[in-house]
Design a protein that fits this description.
By secondary structure, this protein is α+β, with helices and mostly antiparallel strands. It is built from 10 helices and 12 strands. Strand 2 and strand 3 form a beta hairpin.
Length: about 325
């Protein structure tokens, strides 16, 4: 007999899927709880079964071969539908199970079947912990209570794993936020300096260099059109700088309208090409609600030589950029 579908099926499935364990490799801790269930009950086999929308998926099994089967053939789907334990001495005598392939011999010849639902903290039965035997028999009340306790421990284990994963994701997000500019998503000054220091330490025959970038005419845009337009310009500039560099280069926002690019292994011709490409990308019109806006870009390049440290390299690039900016004011449109 096919088990009925719970009235709260959509929410039940959502509760199941948030654990992320369907089709995952067998968890050793779940397997240990399953082994303990079989031992405590004195049964041949035990399985942690998860009931998905249209299939039964074993998460751990001991003493019996378990595979994915259609939900309509599942014994444990009845436990999920009832959200309560089920214990039968001989499944052949129970109309819910008598025609199941797990009972008739098509898949197995289950006789004794006892199962406790896996109930989440918010009350949804997502599967069951069951023990089975090919011989008819009866479990004591103590054994059934122990099976329910172990089913609770299965859910507690799943909850613990979910909380650990959530914590890891939250920590990763915090770490990302601490190392990246909140507006543009680029590396921030701290992260950029760390990356420069790392490449200086491991440079060997490869020479790092910094291209320091400062926007020309950004303040008038903010003054005339407001900070919202200014933010759109900064985001567009960030995207264009990233588009102009190689995959391994690092682009960072290190100040209000100041950016920097960290590169390695570039010849002088390569540097000239990069500078031209950066300027061509950034100085294209930027579409905003205030209209198309244009911005200029002053650039300064510094290459690491000798024992130069992070501060020396960034300072040299900044000074080169200032020289470039002064030259551009005297001769607009000149490269430098």
């Amino acid at each position: 007999m096919k088990a009925p579908i719970p009235a709260d099926e959509a929410r039940r499935l959502a509760a199941l899927h948030r654990y992320g364990i369907l089709d995952a490799p067998t968890d050793p801790d779940l397997e240990a709880l399953t082994r303990l269930a079989a031992s405590v009950a004195g049964c041949e086999g035990a399985v942690v079964n998860l009931i998905d929308a249209d299939r039964q998926v074993p998460a751990a099994a001991i003493g019996t071969e378990a595979g994915i089967v259609p939900r309509q053939d599942s014994l444990c789907a009845h436990v999920v539908a009832a959200n309560a334990p089920i214990h039968v001495s001989d499944a052949r005598d129970d109309p819910r199970f008598a025609d199941s392939p797990f009972v008739t011999g098509v898949i197995a010849e289950v006789r004794l079947y006892a199962s406790a639902p896996l109930v989440t903290p918010d009350g949804y039965a997502i599967g069951s912990l069951c023990v089975v035997s090919s011989a008819a028999g009866t479990l004591s009340d103590e054994h059934l209570a122990a099976l329910e306790d172990l089913a609770h421990q299965v859910v507690q284990l799943l909850e613990l794993r979910r909380h650990v994963e959530d914590l890891g994701n939250a920590l990763a997000e915090v770490d990302h936020m601490a190392a990246h500019d909140h507006l543009t998503g680029l590396s921030n000054r701290r992260r950029f300096m760390e990356e420069v220091a790392s490449r200086l330490r491991g440079r060997g025959a490869v020479t790092p260099l910094i291209v320091y970038c400062d926007l020309d005419g950004f303040k008038p845009i903010n003054d005339a059109h407001g900070h919202e337009a200014g933010d759109l310009v900064l985001v567009a500039v960030a995207e264009r700088l990233e588009r102009a560099v190689r995959h391994d280069d690092v682009v960072a926002r290190i100040g209000g309208d100041e950016f920097a690019v960290l590169c390695t292994d570039l010849s002088e011709d390569d540097v000239a090409t990069l500078v031209r490409r950066l300027r061509e990308e950034v100085e294209q019109p930027i579409t905003t609600p205030a209209g198309d806006l244009t911005i200029g870009l002053s650039l300064g390049v510094a290459r690491a030589y000798g024992a130069a440290d992070v501060d020396d390299l960034l300072r040299a690039a900044d000074e080169a950029m200032d020289d470039n900016k002064r030259g551009r004011r005297l001769s607009p449109g000149a490269d430098g």
